[in-house]
């Protein structure tokens, strides 16, 4: 948790990678984890936001940002469609709906004990 990269093996999408991960506290309540499979383009960024009542909000994100990816994809599809209503639906879906589904915010609660069933 000192910002120094650590390396480990990971299996993602049927492919074995060596991953580089870095974690650090940004302030008293925000903890960041960045994970990047070496040899891949993307990076996962996780921000954990801790509250005094024990709740935690996990904000996942990616680099490339999923909003940018959604906008790029929507432009490709919108240019291929002639109907204005369909263009609007595609544009809205790719720019607003898909990124929030792919990278939703997670609201959690810290617990003292975990019971495995």
Automatic annotation (TrEMBL):
Q: What is this protein called?
A: Uncharacterized protein
- Organism from which the protein derives: bioreactor metagenome
């Amino acid at each position: 948790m000192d910002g120094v990269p650590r390396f480990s093996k990971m299996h993602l999408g049927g492919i074995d990678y060596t991953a580089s991960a870095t974690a650090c506290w940004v302030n008293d309540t925000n903890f960041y984890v960045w994970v990047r499979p070496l040899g891949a383009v993307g990076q996962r960024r996780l921000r954990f936001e801790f509250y005094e009542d024990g709740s935690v909000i996990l904000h996942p994100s990616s680099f490339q940002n999923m909003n940018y990816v959604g906008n790029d994809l929507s432009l490709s599809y919108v240019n291929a469609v002639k109907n204005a209503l369909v263009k609007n639906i595609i544009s809205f879906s790719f720019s607003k709906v898909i990124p929030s589904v792919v990278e939703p915010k997670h609201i959690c609660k810290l617990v003292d004990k975990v019971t495995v069933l």
